[in-house]
Design a protein that fits this description.
By secondary structure, the chain is mostly helical. It has nine helices and no strands.
Amino acid sequence: MSWWRPSDVGYAVRRKLVDIGHATHLFLRLLRLAGPTFKRFGLVRDQIHFLGNHSLAIILVSGLFVGFVLGLQGYYTLQRYGSSEALGLLVALSLVRELGPVVAALLFAGRAGTSLTAEIGLMKAGEQLSAMEMMAVDPVRRILAPRFWGGVIAMPLLAAVFSAVGILGGWFVGVVMIGVDGGAFWSQMQGGVDVWKDVGNGIVKSLVFGLTVTFVALYQGYEAQATPEGVSSATTRTVVMASLLVLGLDFVLTALMFSI
């Protein structure tokens, strides 16, 4: 006897399609609410401060140590070919193109994303969202939209901080500790990093990652079961889904940006 039935497969596929439809509808609503949300910019500003400030410590520490490792490993690799002066270029391109947006997004998902999911899930479990609907207040407009756009704006800022601190970390290891020429470090970086192609593409990536991570966190919290176990499961799903989407989107964006 088979352990699965065609009806079970059909039911699972139908549930997934329903979930995708709900997510798409919520995403389009959040996009349409951009204008009304920014008219009350104080709400967005508070969320930028909340999400960015609470994630800043882990971004700074992680960026610094990633820069340390890049400076050390990059120097040992370039030294084999007599190109240790290009260490600054290697560190900068690695950070602004890939590691800055990607690692910052993963940290953002683990810190701010879980916080958003837990907050919205607990509001649902405490029937606060239902109470707002009873008072004719749209929870999507009042609660979700400011957090969504706050996360979209905060993510590029955190990625920029991550990359800047990482470059300083690479400079400290390469110039101060190892003895690479400081002028060559900065001049190679200045001459090899293109503002529009390299930095601009990194900003686009961080915007896409911020939009993705924030939406996944809000959707999981908004659709969570109104129980402690449901909120816990939703928080776990946020980290897993957001991390996988960030890595997958990074490959797609890299292939599109640097193959043209």
